[in-house]
Design brief:
- The protein has about 90 residues and is of the alpha+beta class.
- The chain has one domain: Orthogonal Bundle (Arc Repressor Mutant, subunit A), CATH 1.10.10.
- About 50% of the residues lie in helices and about 20% in strands.
- It contains 4 helices and 5 strands; from the N terminus they run βββαβαααβ.
- The strands form 2 sheets. It has a 3-stranded antiparallel beta sheet.
- Strand 2 and strand 3 form a beta hairpin.
- The longest helix has 18 residues.
- About 15% of the residues are buried.
Length: about 90
């Protein structure tokens, strides 16, 4: 899976914001604030990667149990997919 190019991650005032670009501006009402973990996952999605790679990276980076990381990553990725922000 990989993120689409019509959203940009921008850090403003210590917050990570997903900002719509191009035609996506008409689809979204504002920006989306990402927490540290979500921002990390979004950055990883710049390259094509599997859910397993994301889970492993999150578990390693944040020193959490792989099962917990897996549940959180899957929830976030499912939300990104429902919003149309990633390609699987």
């Amino acid at each position: 899976m990989k993120r689409k190019d019509d959203l940009m991650l921008q850090k403003v005032g210590g917050q990570a914001l997903l900002i719509p670009l191009g035609a996506k501006v008409l689809d979204m009402n504002g920006m989306v604030v990402l927490n540290t973990t979500a921002s990390f996952i979004w950055e990883l999605l710049a390259e094509d990667c599997s859910i397993e790679e994301l889970v492993r990276a999150v578990a390693d980076r944040f020193e959490v149990d792989a099962d917990l990381a897996g549940a959180d990553v899957r929830t976030f990725v499912d939300d990104l997919y429902r919003q149309g922000w990633i390609e699987i």
